[in-house]
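Supplementary Methods S3. Complex input for the (Z)-L-Arabinonhydroximo-1,4-lactone-bound model.
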Amino acid sequence: MSVTTRPTNPVIPGFHPDPSICRVGEDYYLVCSSFEYFPGIPVFHSRDLANWTQIGNALDRPSQLSLPSDMPSSAGIYAPTLRHHDGRFWLIVTNVSKGVGNIVVSATDPAGPWSDPVRLPGVPGIDPDLAWDEDGTCWCTVAGVAQVRIDLETGETFGPPKKLWSGAPGAKAPEAPHLYHIGEYWYLLIAVGGTEHGHGVSIARGPTPSGPFEACPANPILTHRGTDHPVQNTGHADLVQAPDGSWWMVMLGVRPGGGTPGWHVLGRETFLTPVTWVDGWPVVGEVALNLPEFPWPLAPGPVEEQRDDFELSELRPSWISLRERPAGHFTTKERPGWLTLRARGGSLDEADVIFAGRRQQHLACRARTLLDPSQGCGGLAVRLDERHHYAIEASDTEVRVIARVGTLHTVVATEPLPEGPVVLGITITDPPPPHDARTGPDAVSLGFERPDGTFTTLATLDGRYLSTEVAGGFTGRVIGMYAVSGTAHFDWFDYEPHGR
Ligand code: 6LW
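Predicted complex, serialized as structure tokens:
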């Protein structure tokens, strides 16, 4: 019996770029870049390629990931590759902060624990990939595109990195290489054109892991450059074969909104599409918002609750903080059922403010939290980076909306604080009409609930200023709670998607 199954893209919405995927039996695993956030590298599981559940973070201990407090946003953890070999999961990744470079971690269970990192000083550059040939030799291929043999247990590399095929001559940013042995060929898949409008995917094949490689005549095999497709900047892809023999590709893409030139606010998201093979070359299906019917019934895994009552002793894996999460500053144990954030001074403009957030995953949504500000000052923020954020903040006397856009920093509105704990809310909607060529991608409304339950919006701000096109960098919006002085207690947080 066939079951109609129409999955939708993005399969992992929100700031989840540079997806790398592997399958073991019936189970798929996928990882993404995480940049300045801790814990690093979200790990997802799926049984159907369409529904993904976060099962952990690969770098969740300070011994694995220590990001300096002065590290700029969009540095840190770039572009991992996840593979399974000889009964172990291997994850290789670049930490671009302060001379750490490439590292590898391994695990028998992808939910963790993952090992402490082995440093790879002989592996240059970013976007490392791992592939093993039949005699067990491990080949590490990096952006550029270059390749070196490697011993993953010791981190030793053998010989200097050797240049491989790098796409069309003169093409910008040949990166994100992945090497696969499929049938009689070794295939070298790379991203081309840079991660912006020109992004694409090209492929070559050869008789050995190091070539020589011949380019696919249809290159780039994927790009949305110059199209009016709702998904743009598609590239940085990885291939996987399903148990039924069908092939699939995951890749990053963005969903720009607003007038011209368009703004994307959720960062680069993870999309999926089917792949077929013609004459020994992969043909990539459309990266459509509505995917074609799947050859198998959908198998949704556990869906994470959108509300967190902070009843657990540890924070769920989807909560991310800035650069580190010192235990004394983040706890659900001090006041059971509450998340306590202890400030260490500063403000949201600091790169390492005490912050616990989750990715904004929908173009329209609402986030709310109940804050007890009696012992400190904190709030609810939607953050692109330390220079681009909006927040609703409560101290013991007032509630205020703060906007930071580049060098401009302003308190937009204030109101006296009502008695007791206060519900703070941020609602993200389509921009109000009239719409014209200059309309932004969305509107961000910030406010609070009065004790009688009525919600007061203090300000509605243009969302374009919290977009990648304005802020720059590689990340997307994250919404969360923070503390800037004393101790802020949060009873619950909820996130409500309002459509895609
Ligand atoms: C990553 C590179 C890229 O290292 O962006 O889209 C960089 N591709 O491959 C950061 O995510």
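The chain has two domains: 20-284, 307-497. Residues 307-497 form a domain with the Jelly Rolls fold (CATH 2.60.120.200).
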